[in-house]
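Readers outside the structure-tokenisation community will struggle with the description of the input data as it stands. I therefore recommend that a typical entry be quoted early in the introduction. An entry of this sort, consisting of the sequence and the corresponding backbone structure tokens, reads as follows:
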Amino acid sequence: MKKFLEVAGFLLTLFGVAGVVRELTGGWFRLFGVTRFLTENVWFLEGRELFVNIVIAVLGLVVLIASDRVPKS
């Protein structure tokens, strides 16, 4: 469970940061466009793409911190 949380937290952080960079560069950075599917296809997130990507990155960091508190099994 610990390894799963570490991988999930790392991927969320990576995708969130990549989404922030993509939004700040005007779509030029398309290497990790995974969060684009969330921010463009959910109607109440339209216009809030930068904020959503920041939240995804912070959520990834929270999962990484929580994975340190889970005992290794």
Notes: The mean pLDDT is 87. The helical segments are 2-24, 34-41, 49-69. The chain has one domain: 2-69.
